[in-house]
Write a structure and sequence with these properties.
This protein is mainly beta and 270 residues long. Helices cover 9% and strands 50% of the residues. It folds into 2 domains: 86 residues, Sandwich (Immunoglobulin-like), CATH 2.60.40; 149 residues, Porin. Strand 7 and strand 8 form a beta hairpin.
C-alpha cells in the first residue's frame, strides 16, 4: 500500500513540475526589403498622365502592393507627381526619376518625357535669309525675306525616332530623324525635282501638344549649274490636323528641265 501511495505521489509531482522545454519565440513581423515602381512605359508624351503603381518585396519572400506610400519626382520641369496617388503628368521634355517612399524604403523608375510628333501637320514657314552663288547668283530675289510658303508633314513616331514625308508646296520627300533628349526633332530629307535637288533640314519642337515651332534650312542645287542657293526659314505655324497619318495629295505634273520660276511655283503649291 505504501508503494502505491508513493507511486501516486511521484506521478502527481511529475505533472506539477514545470516543463523543461524552452518556450517558442514569436515569429518577427516581415519587413520591407525593396520596392519596385511600375508604369506602362519608360517613355511618356507631353500632356499624358498615368498613375504609377509599386510593389514591395518582404523579408519573408512575399510581395505586396504599396498602398500608402508618398510619391514624388526629381524634375518638376519634366513631370508633376501627386504625392498620395502616384499620378504622373508629363509637362516637358527630358529625364525624370519617379519615386515612392514607404517604411524607410524607396522605389524608383526613370522616365523620359518627350513630344508626340505622330500624325498629319499643316502650316507654313517664312524666309529669314538667303544666299546664292555661282550660276545661281541673283536667285535670292525670288526668295525675299518674310515670304511665306506652305508646308505639310505626315509623320510616324516609334519611341524617339520619326519617319514620314514632308511637303513644300506640291514637292515632297521622305524624311527621318531622331528626337533629342530636350525634345527637339531633327528631320532631314531631299526633294528631287528633275534638274533640281533641295536638301532640307528641320529643327522642330512641340512643347505644346498639337503645335510645332522651329526652323528649317534648304540648299538648292541644279544639275549643270555651278553654285547653290541657301535658305534659312522659320516655321510660322504648323498644327496637327490628325493624330493618324494620312496620304496627302500628290504633286502636279513634272516639267522637263524646269526653270527656277517653275520650281518656285511648285514651292508655293500652284
Amino acid at each position: 500500500m505504501k508503494r502505491i501511495f508513493l507511486l501516486s505521489g511521484l506521478l502527481v509531482l511529475f505533472y506539477l513540475m514545470p516543463s523543461c522545454k524552452s518556450p517558442t519565440s514569436p515569429t518577427p513581423p516581415a519587413t520591407v526589403q525593396s520596392i519596385t515602381v511600375t508604369s506602362n512605359s519608360d517613355l511618356l508624351y507631353i500632356g499624358i498622365s498615368e498613375t504609377f503603381t509599386a510593389t514591395m518585396t518582404m523579408s519573408d519572400g512575399t510581395s505586396k502592393p504599396v498602398t500608402a506610400g508618398v510619391w514624388g519626382g526629381d524634375t518638376p520641369s519634366v513631370a508633376t507627381v501627386e504625392a498620395a496617388t502616384g499620378r504622373v503628368t508629363i509637362v516637358g521634355s527630358g529625364m525624370v526619376t519617379i519615386f515612392v517612399d514607404y517604411q524607410g524604403r524607396r522605389g524608383t523608375k526613370v522616365i523620359r518625357g518627350l513630344p508626340n510628333y505622330q500624325g498629319t501637320w499643316s502650316g507654313s514657314y517664312y524666309i529669314v535669309s538667303c544666299s546664292a552663288s555661282g550660276n545661281l547668283s541673283g536667285s535670292c530675289t525670288s526668295f525675299p525675306v518674310n515670304q511665306v510658303f506652305p508646308t505639310n508633314l505626315n509623320l510616324i513616331q516609334d519611341r524617339d525616332r520619326v519617319t514620314g514625308k514632308f511637303y513644300l508646296g506640291t514637292l515632297s520627300a521622305d524624311a527621318t530623324g531622331p528626337i533629342q533628349t530636350d525634345g527637339q526633332l531633327l528631320l532631314v530629307g531631299k526633294i528631287v525635282y528633275d534638274i533640281w535637288s533641295i536638301d532640307v533640314s528641320w529643327r522642330m519642337m512641340s512643347a505644346t501638344p498639337g503645335k510645332i515651332t522651329g526652323s528649317l534650312s534648304e540648299i538648292f542645287l541644279a544639275a549643270g549649274y555651278s553654285g547653290d542657293i541657301r535658305i534659312s526659314a522659320n516655321i510660322r505655324d504648323l498644327n496637327r490636323t490628325s493624330t493618324m497619318t494620312t496620304e496627302l495629295a500628290p504633286g502636279g505634273p513634272r516639267l522637263l528641265n524646269p526653270t527656277l520660276e517653275d520650281l518656285i511655283r511648285a514651292l508655293v503649291g500652284r
